[in-house]
Structure formats: C-alpha cells, structure tokens
Write a structure and sequence with these properties.
The complex is a heterodimer of chains A (118) and B (107). Helix content of chain A is 0%, strand content 53%. Chain A is mainly β and 118 residues long. In chain A, the strands form 2 sheets. In chain A, strands 2, 4, 5, 6, 9, 10 and 11 form a 7-stranded mixed beta sheet that branches. Chain A has a 4-stranded antiparallel beta sheet with strand order 1-3-8-7, with no helix packed on it. Chain A is globular. Chain B is mainly beta and 107 residues long. In chain B, the strands form 2 sheets. In chain B, strands 2, 4, 5, 6, 9, 10 and 11 form a 7-stranded mixed beta sheet that branches. The relative contact order of chain B is 0.35. The chains are: A mainly beta (118), B mainly beta (107).
Chain lengths: 118, 107
C-alpha cells in the first residue's frame, strides 16, 4: 500500500524558515517524480514544487521560486521542502504527492499544516 | 499561467441525480486535464486522468470528457458518499494549476 506521511509543519513568524518532510513507503520511491501541493484556508489548491525521480530536475511556480527548495533522499525514501522568507500567504496545508511523469497526482499524503503569523 | 475555471461553484443535488461539472481552460490544453475528489477532512483523490481515462478503484459512475478548453466530469446517479469538493488540474504546461473547485452538496 502506498503511504506518504508528512511532518514538520508548525507556527512560524513572517520571514522565518521551516523544513517539511515526507516519508514514503509501499512503492519504489526512487522511480517516481514527486511534488508538494498546498491547500489554502480558502480550500484553493496550488502546486508549489516538483522534483524528478533522480532529483536532477526541479520546478517551482513564481510564487515560491527562490524561497522554497525541494529535495529528496532516495536512500531514505524521503522527500523534503525547505521553506524560507515565509509570508502570511504561505499559510496552508502542505501535501506531499506522487506526481506521475510530472502530470497527474496519483497518491497524496494526509498533509501537514503551516501557519505563518506574528 | 493557464487558468482553470470551474462551474458551478456549488451544486446542490439529491442522491440519485446525475450531474455534470464543468472545467474551462484559458487556452487549449489538449487532453492534459485531470479530476480529483476531496471529501471533508480528507486528502484529494484522483478520479480521472487525461480528461477521460478511468482510474482503478474509482466507481464507474464517474466519467470525464472534453478536450481543448472545455471539460466535463459526469457523475451518473450521485450517491451520498460522492458529496464533497471536485477539482480539475492541468498538466499541459508549467506551472501546473488547479481550478477553484466545485462543491457538490446535498439538496
């Protein structure tokens, strides 16, 4: 059974940093592209980072480019999202998702919540 | 960026009704359109890929159609477990984007 378990969310002050983790199991993690997708308090979904299976390619939308960094450790079956210069608009539930060939998201974790507030 | 507009924002239906949810893209995206269902307090779940391709484990009452800029998710005879939010997502270009969602609620 595919499982994605996020951790690391919390309350951070504007301008602060945080690193999210996603532990994967039940599939050959190193063979799959992965992404982070967030859901705002208004329930809007926004893709925020993509990484290829080997880690050689990454993509970001302009809203987080230069502030967020996605990475992975295939030996540990773990995906990461390093977030810095956080803003109030980054407040959201952050989901780790398996991103099939960078196209559709076929499995999602349960999410971890980030709140950016002073 | 490609903007996806979903309509209606809310759809109130009675179990047993058949419904159609719309997703319109701001430019042609061929068939690179995917649908997700999200129930309250749960993560999104993939329903349909590439506009009309079925997903293993998803009930056959869910179907998708369309290409180019206009897409439809149809639910044949809605069941109580189907109530929740539905989102479309495009993979024609980066950044990947989602529609604003349609809430399917019980009338």
């Amino acid at each position: 059974e595919v499982q994605l378990v996020e951790s690391g969310g919390g309350l951070v002050k504007p301008g602060g940093s945080l690193k999210l983790s996603c532990a994967a199991s039940g599939f050959a993690f190193s063979s799959y592209d992965m992404s982070w997708v967030r859901q705002t308090p208004e329930k809007r979904l926004e893709w925020v980072a993509y990484i290829s299976s080997g880690g050689g390619s990454t993509y970001y939308p302009d809203t987080v480019k230069g502030r967020f960094t996605i990475s992975r450790d295939n030996a540990k079956n773990t995906l990461y999202l390093q977030m810095s210069s956080l803003k109030s608009e980054d407040t959201a539930m952050y989901y780790c998702a398996r991103h099939r060939t960078g196209n559709y998201f076929d499995y999602w974790g349960q999410g971890t919540t980030l709140t950016v507030s002073s | 960026d490609i903007v996806l507009t979903q309509s209606p924002a809310t759809l109130s239906v009675t179990p047993g009704d058949s419904v159609s949810l719309s997703c319109r893209a701001s430019q042609s995206i061929s068939n690179n359109l995917h649908w997700y269902q999200q129930k309250s307090h749960e993560s999104p779940r993939l329903l349909i890929k590439y506009a009309s391709q079925s997903i293993s484990g998803i009930p056959s009452r869910f179907s998708g159609s369309g290409s180019g800029t206009d897409f439809t998710l149809s639910i044949n005879s809605v069941e109580t477990e189907d109530f929740g939010m539905y989102f479309c997502q495009q993979s024609n270009s980066w950044p990947r984007t989602f529609g604003g969602g349609t809430k399917l609620e019980i009338k």
